[in-house]
Amino acid sequence: MLEHGGHLINAAEKYKIPVEQWIDLSTGINPNGWPIPEIPLACWQRLPESADGLINAAKDYYQCQSILAVAGSQAAIQILPQLRSKSKVGVLSLAYAEHGYSWKKAGHEIIKLSEESIGDQLDLLDVLILINPNNPTAQRFSKDQLLNWHKKLQQRNGWLIVDEAFIDTTPEESLCSYPARDGLIILRSIGKFFGLAGIRCGFVVGQEKLLIRINEALGPWAISHPSRYVATVALIDRQWQQRTRYDLKKQSDRLVLLLTKYGLKPDGQTDLFVWVKIPEAKKIHQVLAEQGILTRLFGRPSSLRFGLPQNEQQWSQFDKELFSLFTTDGV
């Protein structure tokens, strides 16, 4: 299994600290997610139906006309490699690893790219996979840049897959509103911005003929009825969305200031996480974990990803532990 953030139960067992006492900064998920209302009893008693309003809500939120609901964008990540013959697939050397893993597992050739080398190596590729903004480096790719790469790939029936899991706070940077076109596949997530990772609901935006193939591969009732209900209501709650975009930007800037105060100058920032390259990343990760603060550790390059604390108590505790770490341990 690949390493991911959020293994809180494992951390609790390893460091002998009860789960409820942890500050989990490891996931990049909004810690103050959309407030789930009471779920109607019918959602638990009846199979989900496609005409329940979810797709209309998604089309309105993502500003697109061709979209498929899936059991989290992870479901599409695993299905897409099965829909192409053997291909040369470009992935960033530091990015969400499930993309490259799924294509390699399906027998495709993986070509590791740096963010700077994409244009130079594009002619070698049949498929290019990018996360925008990238996870964990926070690198952003402009719409013009992405569409130019797609145009070149499409000339030889290639694909550009853009995972927009962390783009919700800057919807103007999304490609979703462009007309669907061959070989352009966009993945969206309910889990990060809405803080609803547990409902396992995501979306694929692309041409209808491809969405039909994905849907057939997934089979019926891929998303539970309660999850569809929650996702639908969350997607239409514009007041919460507007307020949360504003709040997350403020919280992210606050995190940058806090980390910088202790010499952890960010190398990348989104509104949901901050990424810091530092040689002592492993030691910092361990010391913080011993105090019940979980971060996401990366080995190459040595770096840490920090998500947002949930409340003032967590902010204060995080500040306190950083102060102790950098004054007592001499990191």
Provide keyphrases for this structure.
7-stranded mixed beta sheet, Aspartate Aminotransferase, domain 2, 13 strands, 2 domains, Aspartate Aminotransferase, domain 1, 331 residues, alpha/beta, 4-stranded antiparallel beta sheet
Can you walk me through this structure?
This protein is α/β, with parallel strands linked by helices and 331 residues long. It folds into two domains: 8-33 and 239-328, Alpha-Beta Complex (Aspartate Aminotransferase, domain 1); 42-236, 3-Layer(aba) Sandwich (Aspartate Aminotransferase, domain 2), CATH 3.40.640. 38% of the residues lie in helices and 16% in strands. The strands form three sheets. The protein has a seven-stranded mixed β-sheet with strand order 2-8-7-6-5-3-4, sandwiched between helices. It has a four-stranded antiparallel β-sheet with strand order 9-10-13-12, with helices on one face. A two-stranded parallel sheet has the order 1-11. The relative contact order is 0.17. The mean pLDDT is 95.
Topology (SSEs and partners):
Blueprint: H1 8-15, E1 23-24, H2 42-45, H3 54-62, E2 67-70, H4 73-79, E3 88-92, H5 98-105, E4 109-113, H6 118-121, E5 127-131, H7 143-154, E6 159-163, E7 184-189, E8 202-205, H8 208-218, H9 225-235, H10 238-261, E9 268-269, E10 273-277, H11 281-290, E11 293-294, E12 296-298, E13 303-307, H12 312-328
Parallel strand pairs: 1-11, 3-4, 3-5, 5-6, 6-7
Antiparallel strand pairs: 2-8, 7-8, 9-10, 10-13, 12-13
